[in-house]
Write a structure and sequence with these properties.
Elements: H1 4-16
C-alpha cells in the first residue's frame, strides 16, 4: 500500500482540526508530510 502513512497523517490532521470526515487525495509532495515530526 503506497502512501498509507500519509493518508493516516491527513486523516489525523482533519480529526484534530475538528472537521468532519471527508474525501481527500493523498499526494506525494514531501512538503505536506513531515517525516521529522
Amino acid at each position: 500500500v503506497r502512501n498509507l502513512e500519509r493518508a493516516f497523517f491527513k486523516m489525523w490532521n482533519l480529526h484534530c482540526s475538528g472537521l468532519p470526515p471527508r474525501h481527500f487525495k493523498v499526494t506525494e509532495v514531501d512538503g505536506e508530510f513531515p517525516y521529522d515530526r
